[in-house]
Request: fold
Amino acid sequence: AARNKGETEFLQAVGEVLESLEPVVEQNPDIIKTGVIDRIVEPERFIQFRVSWVDDAGNVRVNRGFRVQFNSAIGPYKGGLRLHPSVTGSVIKFLGFEQTFKNSLTGLPMGGGKGGSDFDPKGKSDAEVMRFCQSFMTELCKHIGADTDVPAGDIGVGAREIGYMYGQYKRLRNEFTGVLTGKGLTFGGSLGRTQATGYGLLYLTEEMLRCMKNDSVAGKTVVISGSGNVAIYATEKAQQLGAKVVALSDSDGYIHDPDGIKLDIVKDIKEVRRARIKEYVQSVPTATYTEGCTGIWSIPCDVALPCATQNELDGASADKLIQGGVTAVAEGANMPCTPEAVEKLQAAGILFAPAKAANAGGVAVSGLEMSQNSLRYGWTFEEVDSKLHDIMLGIFHAAYDASEKYGSAGNLVMGANIAGFLKVAEAMIAQGVAY
Ligand code: NDP
Reply:
C-alpha cells in the first residue's frame, strides 16, 4: 500500500483480489515463496506522456496520456483506452490489473493492459477529437504492436476514435496490422464486436440463473444503468431473451419506462445524435426522467445490470435493490459495485456476477478480432456470436468450479479471481522470477 499511496481505485481492486486468494494460499502455502503474488500486483511497465493538440479556436491544449502494460505472461498486453476527465494513473492501474484476470478467464492468449487520457470528448468537434487522437497515437505508437500490446475502446473511445488512432498508427509505422481492436469493418474489424460486451453479459447472466436458480432471464424486469455501448447492447440481448428493461441512465439522470424501453429511440439519441438520455421522454411521454443517477436502483426489478462506471452502486443502492426484490446482479461496467454493495448483495443471497467474468465478452471478441487479423480472414456474425456464447459459458463455469473447489461454492467474486489468477500465476512461475 505504501508504494501506491493515494491510488484509491487501484488499492481497492488489489485488496479484493488478494482477499479472494486466501484459500489458494492456505491450500498451497509454497506459492508465497515463488513471489508470484508480489510480482502480479506490480505492473510490468507504466507509461505516462504529454498529449498536446490544437482546438478549433486555435488554442493549444494539453492532456495527460497513459498506458499500463500490466502483465504479459499469457499473451500480448490487451485492454481498452479510456477518454474521460476522471482518468488518473490509479484508475488506469486498477483497470489494467483487473484486465489481467479477465483476459485470463476468457481462455484466449491475452495479457493485461489499459490506457487512456483525461481528455473529455464531450462537447468537442469531430476535428478536435481527430487531432487529439492523432497526437495521442503519435506517442503511443512507440509502445504498442500487434504482438506486443493491442489497445481497444473503452469509455469515450468508440469506432470513430479507434479509426483516427488506427489511421495515425498506420501512417507513422507504415504497416497494416491488427494493432488495435474495435476497428471499422472495412479495415479489419470483427462483426459482433459492438454488441459483444452487452450480449456477453446476458449470456453469462442467463447461465448463472440457469445453473444456480434453475431460472432464466425471460419474463424478468431488468434495470440497466448507463446508456453507452455496454448498456445499449445489454438491453438489446435482454429484450431478445424475453426480459423487460425498464430503466437506463447517463451521468445526469435516469429514465424509467414501465412499459419497456424502446431501444430504437435510445440508439437514435445516443449513437446517432450523441445527445442526452433525458430526450427519451420527448418521444415517450409516458416515461419519466429523474435528475441524478443513484435513484435508478430504487426501481423494483428482478435483475440489475450496472453498466455505467466504477463505484456507481454503493451500499445504500444495494439496500434499495434488495428492498425492490432483486434476485441477480451482474456487473457490465468495471467495478461498478463498491465492496460494501457486493457484501450486502452476497449476504442477502442475491446472485452476483463480478465484472471480470460478466463483462469479458468485449475483450473476448477483441481476441477473436486479433485471430481474424492474423488469419487475414473474417468470420460471419453468427460464427463470432456463437464463439462468444461458448466463451461466456466457459467463464461462468471456470469461476463457479473454482468457487466450489476453494470452499465458497457460488461465490463468483472469489471464483473468478482464483480461476483468473491461477493461469497467469502458473505461466509467471514457469517463465522465471526475472520475467
Ligand atoms: P460509453 O462511454 O459508451 O458509455 C458509458 C455510459 O455510462 C454513458 O451513458 C455515460 O453517460 C454513463 N455514465 C458515466 N458515468 C455515469 C454515472 N456516474 N452514472 C450513470 N451513468 C454514467 O462506455 P461503455 O459502455 O463502453 O463502458 C461502460 C463501462 O463498461 C465502463 O466501466 C467500461 O470500462 C466497461 N466495459 C466496456 C467494454 C466495452 O466493450 N465497451 C468492455 C468491458 C467493460 P455520460 O454520457 O453522461 O457520460
Notes: The mean pLDDT is 97. Residues 153-156, 197, 225-231, 249-252, 293, 307-309, 312, 332-334, 359, 362 surround NDP (CB under 6 Å). The longest helix spans residues 381-405.
